[in-house]
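Researcher: If only I could read backbone structure tokens as easily as an amino acid sequence. Walk me, if you will, through where the backbone shape changes along the chain. I have put the entry right below:
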Amino acid sequence: MIEISKIKIQIPKAVEQILDIFSINGYEGYIVGGCVRDSILNKSPQDWDICTNCTPEKMMELLSGFKVIPTGLKHGTVTVVIDHVGYEVTTYRVDGDYRDGRHPEKVQFTASLREDLKRRDFTINAMAYHHKDGLIDYHGGMEDLWNRKIKTVGNPLERFSEDYLRMLRAVRFSAQLDYTLEERTFQGIRALSHNIGKISTERIREELNKILMTEVPSRGLVLLHDTDLLKYILPELEVCVGFNQHSPHHDKDVFNHILSVVDQTEKDLILRLAALLHDIGKPETFSLDESGIGHFYRHHVASWKTAQKIMRRLKYDNRTIDQVLALVKEHMTRYEKLSDKAIKRLISRVNPSNMHRLFKLQIADIGGSSKRNDISDVLDLKRRAERILHEKQPLSIKDLEISGHHLMELGVPEGKKIGRILNELMEIVLENPELNTTNTLLQIAREKLN
């Protein structure tokens, strides 16, 4: 373990400027939290946060040479913008009671760094640093970094009751850093897991996204189950735990198959959400034949419907929902022998910009099975789809070299008949893309009208 006195952190010039201003004017200032933790771990901090005994009003005055945004004066926070980068600066504070498990009833400013660090969530996030004073570590954060543990500052039940989202954050940090949850911290989450529903859907969704975007997402997903959080966040996934597939093609239950598929996808949130949800509907479609073999007929449709409910419940944006649902619904297409016409329809349903994800999901799905390791069908489908896209073959009505205006000029009244004729022309062009010229399609339309 590195001696605390030997810890030296390279602080950005802009942050040094802020700290120097406080020092010159007789105030303390420290970098604090995640930037200290990440610096010790030789990671590049995403944000540099500063804490000080200077009051918010005085901060606004002292830092007036920069752009200062009063982002949270009530809680003692301002954002200082230097060279288009924002730095949060917060007055030392002591939080009052958290009656709703989310926000303190009141905030009291304090002159004590020690008191400020006591209110923070985990020991590894409760360290402060200044070149002059070195590393300030009142709660054993360095020891827990060394031992690779996530541990609350003080009593876990108190820390989690202050903000129930901290339970999810503990799981996320454990997954991101590949650290274990300290036993009392783990038990604290289990004891209070039912309270996670008091947290806003948006905050839960963002933590879930961060877990999915870790190097090995299954670590976090397993921990969600072990801490009892999963059954409140994704009860549909909890049902998959231990669900025996009774299939010679699978050596894992549904949950562990899903975990394997998620782990085999790259860091792409759309792709990982699709991997997480692609078989979520299997339990409800399960049947056992006379030979004791399990079947999940049309599970892709059931998974699509369940995934839609989950994503709307977690308030994902419509574009993300559409992209993920298309992948979930179409992930079984590799088992079909598709004509070029059918592949064009598939591309249209999935969206050309989303097709690369479909193939990656299918390959990961095969990799998560026990005996299906032949990806030649997927590669063949990929090759044929890429050829169609490269040739810019028409895929939908908007790609036709004819429109409703052309048909109206031929005397077709505005209404459903135009749509019906365009659909008929689309069917012809899907089979014969070379017919997609304005003159040819007008000629075919005239023949249909006569």
